[in-house]
Amino acid sequence: MIANKRATAKDWVDPDDAPELDDAFFERADEFRDQVLVKRGRPKAAATKEPVKLRLDPDVVEALRATGDGWQTRINDMLRASLVLAGRLG
Asked: Binning pLDDT at 50, 70 and 90, where does residue 17 land?
């Protein structure tokens, strides 16, 4: 009976087979400072927002979306202003 052999990576012997280290390689490479991985992307906010599902009338959503990008942030600002006026938020 012939036993199944697991596929193994070939040993890399020839240094001429190494890929060229171009600028694209270094753009994707991990960056370490004092043996600590430097995180990429947008830094975490001090206070993160909570995702919620909210049902609104179609005409309200249409009017808000018509104001352009950032309409969801503007909804948050409107709700905050309303709560401040009502004395429920400081």
From this structure: confident
- Tell me the residue ranges of DSSP E strands in 1-90: 32-33, 36-37
The two counts, helices (H) then strands (E), for the chain are: 3, 2
d(CA 10, CA 7) in angstroms, rounded, equals: 9
**Neighbouring residues of 83: CB distance < 8 A, sequence distance ≥ 6:** 89
The average pLDDT across 62-73 equals 95
Query: Distance between CA 1 and CA 7 in Å, rounded?
Result: 18
The CA–CA distances, whole Å, from 43 to 30, 32, 39, 47, 61 equal 16, 17, 8, 12, 30
